[in-house]
Design brief:
Helix content of chain B: 40-55%
Number of domains of chain A: 1
Largest sheet of chain A: none
Protein name (chain A): Cytochrome c oxidase assembly factor 6
Low-confidence stretches of chain A: 1-13
Shape of chain A: elongated
Family (chain A): Belongs to the cytochrome c oxidase subunit 6B family.
Oligomer: heterodimer
Strand order of the largest sheet of chain B: 2-1-5-4-3-8-9
CATH superfamily of one domain in chain B: Glutaredoxin
Subcellular location (chain A): Cytoplasm; Mitochondrion intermembrane space; Nucleus
Number of strands of chain B: 9
Order of helices and strands of chain A: HHHHH
Helix content of chain A: over 70%
Radius of gyration of chain B: 35 Å
Number of strands of chain A: 0
GO biological process, one term (chain A): mitochondrial respiratory chain complex IV assembly
CATH class of one domain in chain B: Alpha Beta
Distance between the termini of chain B: 39 Å
Structural class of chain A: mainly alpha
CATH topology of one domain in chain B: Glutaredoxin
Structural class of chain B: alpha+beta
Largest interface: A-B, 15 and 15 residues
Radius of gyration of chain A: 18 Å
Number of helices of chain A: 5
Order of helices and strands of chain B: HHHEEEHEHEHEEEEHH
Main location (chain A): cytoplasm
Chain lengths: 104, 295
C-alpha cells in the first residue's frame, strides 16, 4: 500500500471521501464479511469472537481496518448484525403467515 | 307504481292494527282493506297484473320494426371499443392528473407551509443561498454528509440517474441540492470534492452549525451531530434520508424515500412536474364554475 502510506496518519481525521476510497473500503469489507460467513461468525464486535476472527480472518480484518475509517468499521459491523436479525425476523413472519394460511 | 303504492298502503294498515286490540283493531283493518281496494279500482287494473314498472303496453303485436339504418355487428363492436377505450383512457389520465395535483395541493398546505421555509446557507462556491434561490424552478433537496458510509453515496448515485433520465427523456431540469448535516467537517471545499464524484449539477450547501440546524429543522430532518466536535474526530451523523421535491414557488411538493428506485422515482417526479399548476392559475380554478372538480 505504498500509495496510501504517506497519508496513513491523516486517515483518522479524514475518512474516505472519494469514490475510489469508498470502493476500496467496501471491497475489503465484503471480503472480511465473506470470511466471517465462512467461519460462522455474526457479531465481529463481540469480544468472544475475537479469537476466532484472529485465527480465521486475520488478513481480511487487517485490510478492512486499513481501508476504512474507524467510524465506518463500527457502523458496518453493527449493520451486519442488524441486517441479519432483520432478515431472520422477515423469514419468521413469512413462515408464520404461511402456517396460518395452512391452518385455515 | 302499483306495486309500490300497494306495499305502502299495506304497511300503513298493519302498523296501527298491531298496536290496537279488540274491536278497534278490526275496524282499522277493515278501513285499511277498503283503502286498498279503492286504490286497485282507481288504477283499473288487477292487483297482480304483470305490467312492468313504468312500462308501456306492447303496441305492435310483437312485431319488430325494421330500422332504416343497417348496422354491421362487427363495425358496431369496433366503434364501441374504440370510443369506450378512448374515453376510459382519457378519464383515467385526467383522474390521475387531478389526484396528483390534489396531493401536491394538500402538501402545500394552507397558509403556512408545512415543510420548508426561510433558511440561510452558503453554497460550495462561497455564494449565499437562501429559500429565495428555490424560486422559478423545481428543486430536489437531499440532506446528508460527506463521510456517510454507504447510504448517501447510493442515494446520490440514484439522484444522478434520475437527473439524467429526467433531462434526456422528459426535458425536465431540476435544481439538485445537497445540504450537509455535518458542517463541522463539510466545508465548501470538502463538499466540492465530494460531490465531484456524482452528478455535476448537484450543488452542495453548508453553513454554521446553527444555520444548518435551522435548515434541517425547517425540513423536519432529524440529525445528530455533536455541536462541539474536536477537529480530527471520527464520527458518523445520523440523519433522515429523503429527497424533498420543491416546486418553483419554493413550496414542498413531496418527499421521496428509499422505496423509490431509479425508475419509479423518475415517474413520480414527472407526474408532479406535469401536474404542477402555477399559483395564479390555481386561484382562477378555485373561482371558476367548475371549481367543484378540484375540491
Amino acid at each position: 500500500m505504498g500509495l496510501f502510506s504517506f497519508d496513513g496518519g491523516k486517515k483518522e481525521s479524514q475518512p474516505p471521501n472519494t469514490r475510489s476510497q469508498r470502493k476500496l473500503c467496501w471491497e475489503s469489507r465484503d471480503a472480511f464479511f465473506q470470511c466471517l460467513d465462512k467461519a460462522d461468525i455474526l457479531d465481529a464486535m463481540d469480544p468472544k469472537n475475537s479469537k476466532s476472527i484472529k485465527s480465521h480472518c486475520k488478513v481480511e480484518n487487517e485490510k478492512f481496518e486499513e481501508n476504512c475509517a474507524h467510524s465506518w468499521i463500527k457502523y458496518f459491523k453493527e449493520k451486519r448484525v442488524i441486517d441479519f436479525k432483520r432478515e431472520e425476523t422477515i423469514k419468521r413472519i413469512e413462515q408464520e403467515a404461511k402456517q396460518r394460511e395452512r391452518n385455515q | 307504481m302499483l306495486k309500490l303504492s300497494r306495499s305502502a298502503n299495506l304497511r300503513l294498515v298493519q302498523l296501527p292494527a298491531a298496536r290496537l286490540s279488540g274491536n278497534g283493531a278490526k275496524l282499522l283493518t277493515q278501513r285499511g282493506f277498503f283503502t286498498v281496494t279503492r286504490l286497485w279500482q282507481s288504477n283499473g287494473k288487477k292487483p297482480l297484473s304483470r305490467v312492468p314498472v313504468g312500462g308501456t303496453p306492447i303496441k305492435d303485436n310483437g312485431k319488430v320494426r325494421e330500422g332504416s339504418i343497417e348496422f354491421s355487428t362487427g363495425k358496431a363492436i369496433a366503434l364501441f371499443l374504440a370510443v369506450g377505450g378512448a374515453l376510459s383512457y382519457f378519464f383515467n389520465r385526467e383522474k390521475r392528473r387531478l389526484e396528483t395535483q390534489k396531493e401536491a395541493e394538500a402538501n402545500r398546505g394552507y397558509g403556512k407551509p408545512s415543510l420548508g421555509g426561510p433558511f440561510h446557507l452558503e453554497d460550495m462556491y462561497g455564494n449565499e443561498f437562501t429559500e429565495k434561490n428555490l424560486l422559478g424552478k423545481f428543486s430536489i433537496i437531499y440532506f446528508g454528509f460527506s463521510n456517510c458510509p454507504d447510504i448517501c453515496p447510493d442515494e446520490l448515485d440514484k439522484l444522478g440517474v434520475w437527473l439524467n433520465t429526467l433531462s434526456s427523456k422528459y426535458g425536465i431540469t431540476l435544481q439538485p441540492l445537497f445540504i450537509t448535516c455535518d458542517p463541522a467537517r463539510d466545508s465548501p471545499a470538502v463538499l466540492k470534492e465530494y460531490l465531484s464524484d456524482f452528478h455535476p449539477s448537484i450543488l452542495g450547501l453548508t453553513g454554521t452549525f446553527d444555520e444548518v440546524k435551522n435548515a434541517c429543522k425547517k425540513y423536519r430532518v432529524y440529525f445528530s451531530t455533536p455541536p462541539n466536535v474536536k477537529p480530527g474526530q471520527d464520527y458518523l451523523v445520523d440523519h433522515s434520508i429523503f429527497f424533498y421535491l420543491m416546486d418553483p414557488e419554493g413550496q414542498f411538493v413531496d418527499a421521496l424515500g428509499r422505496n423509490y428506485d431509479e425508475k419509479t422515482g423518475v415517474d413520480k417526479i414527472v407526474e408532479h412536474v406535469k401536474s404542477y399548476v402555477p399559483a395564479e392559475q390555481r386561484a382562477k380554478q378555485k373561482e371558476a364554475w367548475y371549481s367543484f372538480l378540484f375540491k
